Amino acid sequence: MSISNVSKSLQGVSKHMPPLGQSQGFRGEHCPAWTRVPANLSAMVVNTNRRGRKFPPPTFLVQLVSPRCNFLSLCEAIHTMSLALDVITDSRVLVRLALLGAIFVLFRIYKSLIAPTKPWPNFPVIKLDGLDAATSWTEHALETIFRGREATNDGFFQIITGNGPKIVAPNRFLEEIKANKDLDAQKGLDAQKAFSTEHFWTYSGMIGFKAMRNYPEPIRHVVRGKVNAAMLAMTKELAAEAVAVIDASMPSKDAADDEWHSVSMQPVCEEIVARLSTLLFLGRDACRDREWLDVVRTYTFNAFRTSARLRACSPIWRPLAHRFWFSESKMVRKQCAHADMMIKPMIEKRQKLIAADCVGSQMLLTLCAVHNTTETMNVAVLDICKNPDVVQPLRNEIVRVLKEEGGWTKNVFSKLHLMDSFLKESQRMLPNNIAPLRRIVTRRTVLSDGTVLPKGAFVTFAGNNMDPSVYPNPDVFDAYRFLRLRGKHNDGFQYTGLSTDMIQFGYGSWACPGRFLAVTELKLALVLFLMEFDFCLDETSQEYVRHSAGANMSNRGATIKVRRRKEKEIDLMAMLE
């Protein structure tokens, strides 16, 4: 039986019922005016479809409270729906709907897949000889930046990345762009789209990047106001935790004096950073929780690995690849669910955090604290191996400062000036990313030299780390470079200082608020490494660092040679008591 026949049968039953608006509990003037409808439905104005069939207006839209009136409404609804289906199934209507649907789908494909990959007009696209623009950036990012600056006389140019074109701006415009709200990294619809493509925060499992987009100010406030203050008050506790990690991860104290061991430093550095950061973020119980630490370490690695693999994947296949193909994507989803189960009980126990996405915020802190600091620490250890002449001066400074301070105090790390210069030189030679500062143009913007930045463009800056006009002999590792500059100029040459030449920590109001925590963890680890161990390169090891699309990443399988020192200038353990 068709829907029309069913509705007509139900209408026949309804003839034996009281007219609308006159049933029990719904009578006369007591009935609200907006619910009074004619008793004789056939007398109402009717509509006619293309086939000449008549149907009444949709009285089922009138709100009725009587049970009998509700039954009548059901009859009318079924009848009206059947007639609407007659119109929809008209072949000409179906053809038009299909065409509209096809146009919509093609438009969405163009907007999401084709338009974002088209270079912006008026900005030259840079590529190296014999390579296309995308391969030039992916495999030879630094050379591409140098070629662009040379070709444009240090002007604007474009690079083609896995997420489409990016305009590289000269660093002399940093001050101007820093003050321009139209280029704010966190405002506007275009910023949201850019962060989606850069970090894929809309994809399942990427809750740390989602929190970066949705809750930037609360996170910055927590790091600046709470974490940095706690760090200064917990210097001795942080040192004790780092010692515990090193004792568990590095060669035993019982090893012979001349015995060298092959050690992969990347996992050791990762464990130190994860434990120290968790101690500050969640407390002592969490920083000793092996299950949670495994989530912290593996989520950070898998989240950044997922982003890298998705950027290398064709946009049309990214949703499917993330859902079904990439093992890292499956792991981040699993780890987010695990983190949710572990963090919420901690919060409920303390009865403090009531944020809508406390799990995402914690995973964001994990992403920011663990990944870059681990990479920087690992590279610093490699630079110690490559530059053995700086080891003894660093040890002498450590001994002097610890004796002056009488142990682990909050002032120890700020007085390690040579170590500060060493770390900054290490960062200059091999930064985590050669183009780390990014902005989104939220409306058409004209700069002071007349350059027009189009709305929706992604603008990025590359540091002057290897520019000989800024840093003489840029290919030579000079551990004293920034110590000399610091003495001549100002504190802008400290490791945490901000300048337009080295922008690894960003610049302006959106500079990294966690850089003070990072430098504390780095210096603490180096103090323990240098005073407890000797280091040298392992000639049989794999390559130490890999380069891809402007990013420098440690090889987790690379090893160095390590041995315990027997004769030490100072007893670090005694200072923890």
Automatic annotation (TrEMBL):
Molecular functions per Gene Ontology: heme binding; iron ion binding; monooxygenase activity; oxidoreductase activity, acting on paired donors, with incorporation or reduction of molecular oxygen
Keywords linked to the UniProt accession: Heme, Iron, Metal-binding, Monooxygenase, Oxidoreductase
Gene3D superfamilies from the UniProt entry: Cytochrome P450
Cofactor names: heme
Binding-site residues, heme: C512
Pfam families (UniProt xref): p450
Assigned protein family: Belongs to the cytochrome P450 family.
UniProt name for this protein: Cytochrome P450
